[in-house]
């Protein structure tokens, strides 16, 4: 069984392990040869670790057990005790504080604060690949060795910050963390959830509460870049993003300015409907920003069957590598490599689709 050192845990904000605490393997479903271990302080579970060749997850708990550590006590008077297992602990009880997770499948390490549902660090967004268990061990060693007093102060403030809610508005500027000590910035261009509430027509096949956001071409260690400076920077093309990261405060809103026409840029959605009422009908839809069109009795333009483009991302940034490539090249070609569902990447096809709806590409707010 692999264990981090307490020095490594301290650098990540995880609870420390006392020498007298004891480890016990929990029964439960196997997870790719991984095992779940619980760490006991007497009859109290203080920590759990899911560990295997392709996964490592460490969480902090405070769960009481009885009957020689075989039964979990209920958290409330109305609950019933449950037999202790990997499932009853991992899925049935909520951990607290920081959570460390790594998987070979994603090739990334993440540090999350469970109480506020916010991510402190993601190696994937930082462009750092952690593909094997040996890579993960080296990452943990390097993270602790490179930790500075300033890093510990930032981590302490992050952990102590209370959960808050922010309501995004069109024109809002927001900040997000890219690396351990670096930041990116973005802008809210459109709120489809607001249109949904106002019953304004649009092709409503976007899940959750979708925003259209765009990221500025900047990576900096300055957490206080002014909105005036940001508004003069080039941007990556816009994407759909769930509002969760702004709503829960992981992406702080740092200001607002009215959007200028030159700043507007919207993804394009096109195709047949997905609801039951559209089944069997010759009907196609088009959406770009606030421009919505639908036609009955027609077929999808040949070669344009795969441009529904209704996927919503979680982070605002596709990847650090893409942003750096666009900044270095002075264009957005790297961005379009992984945007095969968006008609903005195919000017000729977009022109043909616009013709079907008696639209001009010049009438759309899109940028390359």
Count of individual helical segments: 10
- Specify Rg, calculated over alpha carbons: 24 Å
Determine the strand fraction and express it as a percent band: 25-35%
Give me the secondary-structure category. Answer: alpha+beta
Helix content: 10-25%
Provide structural commentary:
It is a single chain. By secondary structure, the protein is of the alpha+beta class. 21% of the residues lie in helices and 29% in strands. The protein is built from ten helices and 17 strands. The protein has helices at 6-12, 86-90, 133-146, 149-160, 192-197, 227-230, 244-247, 320-329, 333-336, 347-356, and strands at 22-31, 34-41, 44-52, 55-66, 71-72, 82-83, 96-103, 108-113, 118-122, 172-177, 183-191, 210-215, 239-242, 253-256, 268-272, 283-288, 291-296. The strands form three sheets. Strands 1, 2, 3, 4, 5, 6, 7, 8 and 9 form a nine-stranded antiparallel beta sheet that branches. The chain has a five-stranded antiparallel beta sheet with strand order 13-12-11-10-14. It has a three-stranded antiparallel beta sheet with strand order 15-16-17, with no helix packed on it. Helix 1 packs across helix 3 (133-146). 32% of the residues are buried. The mean pLDDT is 93.
């Amino acid at each position: 069984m692999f264990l981090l050192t307490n020095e490594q845990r301290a650098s990540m904000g995880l609870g420390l392990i006392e020498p007298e605490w004891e480890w016990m393997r929990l029964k439960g479903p196997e997870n790719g040869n991984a095992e779940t271990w619980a760490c006991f302080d007497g009859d109290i579970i203080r920590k759990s670790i899911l560990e295997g060749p392709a996964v490592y997850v460490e969480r902090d708990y405070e769960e009481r057990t009885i009957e020689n550590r075989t039964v979990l006590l209920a958290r409330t008077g109305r609950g019933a005790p449950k037999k202790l297992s990997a499932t009853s602990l991992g899925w049935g009880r909520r951990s607290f504080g920081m959570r460390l997770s790594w998987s070979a499948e994603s090739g990334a390490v993440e540090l999350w604060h469970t109480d506020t549902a916010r991510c402190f660090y993601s190696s994937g967004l930082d462009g750092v690949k952690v593909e094997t268990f040996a890579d993960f061990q080296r990452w943990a060693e390097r993270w602790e060795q490179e930790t500075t007093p300033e890093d510990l102060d930032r981590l302490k403030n992050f952990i102590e910050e209370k959960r808050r809610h922010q309501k995004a508005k069109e024109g809002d500027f927001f900040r997000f963390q890219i690396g351990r000590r670096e930041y990116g910035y973005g802008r809210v261009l459109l709120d489809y959830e607001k249109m949904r509430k106002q019953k304004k027509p649009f092709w409503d096949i976007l899940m959750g509460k979708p925003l259209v956001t765009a990221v500025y071409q900047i990576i900096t260690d300055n957490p206080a870049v002014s909105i005036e400076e940001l508004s003069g920077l080039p941007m990556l093309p816009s994407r759909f993003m769930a509002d969760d990261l702004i709503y829960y405060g992981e992406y702080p809103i740092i200001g607002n300015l009215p959007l200028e026409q030159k700043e507007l840029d919207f993804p394009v959605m096109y195709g047949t409907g997905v609801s039951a009422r559209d089944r069997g009908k010759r009907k196609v839809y088009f959406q770009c920003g606030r421009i919505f069109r639908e036609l009955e009795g027609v077929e999808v333009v040949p070669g344009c069957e795969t441009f529904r483009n209704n996927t919503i991302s979680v982070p605002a940034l596709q990847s650090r590598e893409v942003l750096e490539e666009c900044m270095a090249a002075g264009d957005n070609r790297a961005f379009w490599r992984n945007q095969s569902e968006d008609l903005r990447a195919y000017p000729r096809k977009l022109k043909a689709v616009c013709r079907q709806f008696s639209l001009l590409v010049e009438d759309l707010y899109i940028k390359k």
